[in-house]
Amino acid sequence: MRKIIAVLILFIGINSAFGQNFNLFNRKDDLKNFSAKTTYVVIQGNNSLEDIVLMDAVKQHWHLSPYEFCNMEEFENIKRDTNFFFLMKVDGQFSKEKEPAMEFLTLVKGSENSAEGLNNMYEVLSLPYKPLNDDSGEEFIYTAPFINIIQAHILKVQRNKLSAYIGISAYSDGMNGAEDKEILFAEDDFGFEVTQEMLDEDFKGKAKLVTREEIEKAIEERRPNTLVCAVVAPSINQRGSFCFKMLISADTWELYMYRKHKMSAKQGAGLQKEDYRRISAPFAF
Length: 285
Description:
The chain is α/β, with parallel strands linked by helices. The chain is built from 9 helices and 11 strands. It has 2 domains: 5-169, no CATH class; 172-283, no CATH class. Strands 1, 2, 3, 4, 5 and 6 form a 6-stranded mixed β-sheet that branches.
C-alpha cells in the first residue's frame, strides 16, 4: 500500500487535489448513478489488523452501493474501468514536503489515465487517517465514522453540485447546532495549554477534557448529543506538512468541522487558538 503515493497538492477540492481539468457539472454527474456502480475496497491482502478493521467497517456501514474487496494486484488490473470506484488508503505528499508524512482514506473513481498515477483519478473525498509509520492503532476508532462521512458527502454532492467543487473544505465553517451538544477533547488535542476551568467558562460547561479511552467509548456507544475531537498530524514536523483537525458527532458520525493548518516552528500539531475561538463561538450566547 505504501508504494502508492497520492500527490495531494492543496487538498482543498477535487481539482486542486488531483490536477484534472475541472468541470463542475461533470463532477455531479460522476456520482449521479453511484448506487448502481461497484465500489472496490482495496486491502493489503495479508490478514493484517488494518485490513480487518477496514473490512469490518465496510461490511457493517457501507450502504450506498454494491462493494467488493480486492488486493493491490487486482486493483492494478481494474483501475482503468470508469464503472468502478475504489475506497483505499494512500500515502499523501504535499507539494513542499520532502516525503509523504500522512496516510489518507480516499474514494476515487476508475480512470483510463490511471496508469499514469492516482493523480489522474477523480477524487470524491479524502480524509486524513493517520501519520505514516504509526502503529498505535488510534485511527481504528475513526474508521467507521469516516466510512459514514464519505457516504454522506456523496449524497451531498448528488443534491448540490457546488459541494463537488468545495470538497472537504465545505466543512471548515460548520458547527451549526453544536451549541446543543457536549464536546469531548483529549488533552493532547491542543497545541497550547488548556484547562478544564477554561473550557467550563468558554463552553458554558459543555466541553470536557477526557482520556482517549473516553472518546473511543463515546464513539462505540454512539453517545447522543456528543461531539468528539480528532487531530491527525505527521509524527515528523517537516516543511510543508499539515495538521488536520475534525469534530465528529459521536452518535450520527457526521463531520461537524474540518480545519487544517500548515505546521511550523510556531504552530505545531493540535488545535490552535484560532480553532479554539471558532469552536467555542456558538457557546458564547
